[in-house]
Amino acid sequence: MEALIPVPVLLPLLAAALKLAIGARLRRLHALISLVTLAAMLVVSVILLVAADSGGPLVACVGGWPAPTGICLVADRLSTLMLVVSSAVTLCVMLYSQANAYADQEHLAPLSIFHPAYLIMVAGVADAFLSGDLFNLFVAFEMLLGGSYVLLTFGGTLPRIRAGATYTVMGLASSMLFLIALAIAYAATGTLSMAQLAERFAGLPEHLKLLVELTLLLVFAIKAAVFPMSAWLPDSYPTAPAPATAVFAGLLTKVGIYAIIRLEALLFPGGPVSTILMWAALATMLVGVAGAVAQTDIKRMLSFTLVSHIGYMVYGVALSSVPGMAGAVMYVVHHITVQTSLFLVTGLIERRTGTTSIDRLGGLMRLAPLIAVLFFIPAMNLSGIPPMSGFLGKLLLIQAGVADGRPLALTLVAGSLVTSLLTLYAVAKTWGKAFWRAPQTAPAEVTVLESEESSEEGAIRTSARLPGPMVGATAALVALALSYTMLAGPLSALAGRAAGELMARRPYLDAVAGSSR
Known about the structure:
Distance between the termini: 18 Å
Helix content: over 70%
Oligomer: single chain
């Protein structure tokens, strides 16, 4: 079973290399390779999840070199659960992208660029989830960021280049901080293996441990868009093409959250920064949702809700308890799926009408009832309407906060309730204006109509008949999020087991030590 652990990293890298060798020819072969690769990743991820849940963490030493000499990939309950969800999401987004406007923009940027960049990003995400070494985690972040730089600027339009510049600067700044933290940690302990760091940090002076923890926390907070390091996100994500925006919003920020979970649970359990994390979680929730309420564009509204709901996950980590961590894990799984589906629906709206401005939309309930349903379900899920998975994740976090009993934890409970209500208000306002009121602009009347107006991104294409794969992929993600409600018992139990394994630390450390022997 350990031989399967590197497969989710190697498969997309090999597929990307094959696509680069093929070049711009054989577009259908490009699509087939991508879909087969991502489907195989999903199957392998499910197998690894079942094995890790039943038999404990699995460890593969890259190149046969044991830790700490070599780099280990560790598949435990948390990492394999993240792999399963991310594989399902990236597969659906790839299906969506096959029929999206990339075909319309072939003259601007060929699919032979999009597919390799997408697969390299997917490989980086998988590597980040499986990495048992801090330096390999740095490499994983660089892989996924390298692919995301290409996807964010896909098409080469001025708004995307401008947003890409901001995104690149933030990525490079966080990478420099990451290297500094790695240098300090290696100088102090002589290793970058997470398992060995967890044991050696215990013997370091408190001020040195705190320096490493805060530096790493700052790095991951930038990547996860935790307030006040979140200003870059609402200006960067909305400019990207719909599939890229969806996978960025749903998945990339969660890699930062995953790193924070590993940092706080494995390397610095019960550290002194939990209070800082609580305040950061509260500020992220409230500032993000305040920005969402003020927006008049669906993409920007969803970008601010993305920032806001990152606060829920940080809230669970900050409690430093098994119930809090279980709530954080449950909410990460829920949010990856729901946020991705909302951005995909927004892409459908833009393709159908040529805009995502709430002030210009209207009457979509009559014009496109299927889009209306596909938007309404994940929007209510994001708001936490019972009995959906958003409600279940928030309930776990609220129960953990009440059980904690500290005044700041109870303040977080109140802040999470306010954030949930304001999220409901933001999506309800969007729904009322975009779907219920009378149309504000004339809808498309032909199958494919190129608007006479052109923007900085070029002519907008609207379509009265949306491609089936786009709608099907979006519906599949909406259904996946709904299935979390049907499987609430097993999923919450799995999240609890993953949290217990994280907080116990011993299963992880023993598995890596056993592989070294």
